[in-house]
Amino acid sequence: MELTRTEFEQMLETTCQSVLQYLFDRKSSLHQSRITSKEQQGNSELTIPKQPTNQSLQELLDGIMAAAESGTNPRHPGYMQYMPTGGLLHSVLSDIVSKCLNKYTGFYFAAPGLVDLECNVIRWLCAIFGMDLDSGAFGILTSGGTASNLSAVLMARNKLLQP
């Protein structure tokens, strides 16, 4: 379904308002909801309609935000689990740009300008941490802490267990 600019702007505004309400205006600020799995299963009524429905975007977003209320709230100051999985609102803005550009940066030919940008960011970080760029210090940018940790473990394994 192709969208016009006006349709996309309206959908974007509706989505942003739902996200802002979830992040800043919700009543639940606990680091973990107190809902049991049995209660959650009772609240989940996923039915696949045989015919397309006229459900509004707002109704869909309301259901998603209600489902998001269960579980942990990594933005809460009491959230002390291993790896915080969210809460960096600045990263939301970069995600919007990244998802809208939808460029694959896994190889140079697909997006040379963005690959160069990533390389420059990595060089900049190396310089901040005093790593000698002439020694071959480099790295990759990952999507989060789990991918970063996995990359570090694999690099350490490969370094220690030479093929």
UniProtKB/TrEMBL annotation:
The keyword Manganese does not apply. It comes from Didymodactylos carnosus. This is Pyridoxal-dependent decarboxylase. One of its GO terms (molecular function) is pyridoxal phosphate binding. Its cofactor is pyridoxal 5'-phosphate. GO terms for biological process: carboxylic acid metabolic process. Belongs to the group II decarboxylase family. GO terms for cellular component: cytoplasm. Pfam families: Pyridoxal_deC (PF00282). The keyword Lipoprotein does not apply. Keywords: Decarboxylase, Lyase, Pyridoxal phosphate.
